[in-house]
Amino acid sequence: FTHAPNISDINQGLAGDCYFLAAVGALVAYDPEAVRKMFCDLKDGTVLVRLYVGFDENNRRVDDVNDLAAKGTTLKPVYIRVRKDYETGGDYSLHCMWIQLLEKAYASIGANHKFARVDENGQLYNFHKEISSGDPEKILMHLTGRKGVVNISNDVNEEVCAVFRKRYVLNGIPGYMHNVIWDRITDQKNRPLPEDEAEATAELIRRAKEVIDDELSLAQEDLARLQILLDKKDVTLTPEEKQQLLTKFREAYLPESKALTEKLRLNLTTDDPTLCDSKGRQEPSTAVTDIKNALKQKKDIRALLKIIDHRTEYYPDPERDDNMTREEYEKQMNNINSEAKIRNRAIADINPGGRYSDREMSILHLYRNAVKNRRGGVLGCPGHCLTVLDIQLKNGKWFVLVRDVFNSFNYSYVKNQAGELEGKYNNSLVDCFFQKRKMKFLNRDAGNAAPGASWWELRDLVNTGGWFEAFP
After folding, report:
1. pLDDT tens, per residue, the chain with 472 residues
2. Can you tell me the distance from the alpha carbon of 264 to that of 208, in angstroms, rounded to the nearest whole number?
3. What is the DSSP track for 208-219?
4. Nearest Cα to 448, choosing from 396, 411, 403?
5. What is the CB neighbour count within 10 angstroms for residue 209?
6. CA angle 427, 430, 434 (to 5 degrees)
7. What CA–CA distance (Å, rounded) separates 405 from 226?
């Protein structure tokens, strides 16, 4: 290294390796020392490069991104010896040697497409075929040996995701309260949250407590109704059975407000909440009505107690499409679970005037968390990948600082009358990257971090129809 590795060293040549370079950029932007430690100069014209390769529980090598992320997979260090040759061909990044050596080392292990071949003289063949196109999540695991990349894709069933969000936030809260609490805490357009995140979380809990207290007050009235029913002369229960029924009702429908509110607070602030049961007790007013009818039929105490214990199905299992295999269904459910958790963690994030959708806010949270923890982020749109460097709130809008590894000259894009992003010759946004059109600074108050970097409003990035990845 002639200088500390930095993101300006990374610039794409003609190979389709933007996914690789964007992932490396996400790492070097926040932890350049980690990149430096991957190299060991042997002082003989060669360098050892440390990467990580996955092995399953039977010690068999695995290269698929899902296999690498699996619980039973261990990422073990491997060391690749490469010559310190500076390549001048258009396939390579031409601005710095270390990124060339890293890319050649990765290509030589054949973990991407298995096209690479190294002969007895150490000559690497099929580099271009091996390195072209790939998955940044996979690269981040090969570079760091760490799992846990969080990604957000486009194939999430919004209706099912909303149900899962509710089940995570309201776990431990009586099921009959869920809808009214959820409507209250998610109504940010009519009742915007404070801009401070701690204050926003406190406001969400305060709103939920209002509903909980109202519902408990109604349950107290239902208890009084039940007491009146049991005091009637035609009731055949013994005094002990009446007391048993009243005690059961109190335990079921009159928990402490403080305990429920604390449970909600934990659900909102934990990174890994638990999904609530699909069934729960029916509303207390319904239970009292059913008990009234059972008393008319001279039902015994066991039948009356069963009414209070009755479970109503609040959350039926999502239906599986007839054309979907079980594996595809489970993958879809896993994606929805992951997305629901991210969206719930973003529920207290600043959403100026309710401008952004739930999905946009989840992407905001993903990148804000990555930047806060000095981790990397990658944005993928059809045909291209960019490195996410920073995210800031300016003039009531969220802006994301991204760096395009193919556009180190800051060429710009423009908006047409429909608000779509175009290049000079009416190219689409993705074409702009490949045509090297200038990227317009959507927020001129914020400076750039490196050549090829520019600020984009969050909504413009989300509208590329891409996917989003970051270390948590």
Report:
1. 778 888 888 888 777 888 889 899 988 888 889 899 999 999 998 899 999 999 999 999 988 888 888 888 999 999 989 888 766 655 555 567 898 889 888 888 877 767 666 666 666 656 667 777 788 888 888 998 888 777 776 667 888 999 999 999 999 999 999 999 999 998 866 777 887 778 888 999 999 999 999 999 999 999 999 999 999 988 989 999 999 999 999 999 999 999 999 999 999 888 788 999 999 999 999 999 999 999 999 999 999 999 999 999 999 988 888 888 888 888 788 888 888 888 888 888 888 878 888 888 888 888 888 888 877 788 877 678 888 888 888 888 888 888 887 765 544 445 556 655 443 333 333 443 433 333 333 333 344 456 677 777 888 777 766 677 776 5
2. 8
3. HHHHHHHHHHHH
4. 403
5. 17
6. 85
7. 70
Q: Which two tokens stand for residue 428?
A: 């689409």
Q: Letter for the amino acid at 268?
A: L
Residue whose structure tokens are 């005037």: 353
Token digits for 122?
Answer: 């150490």
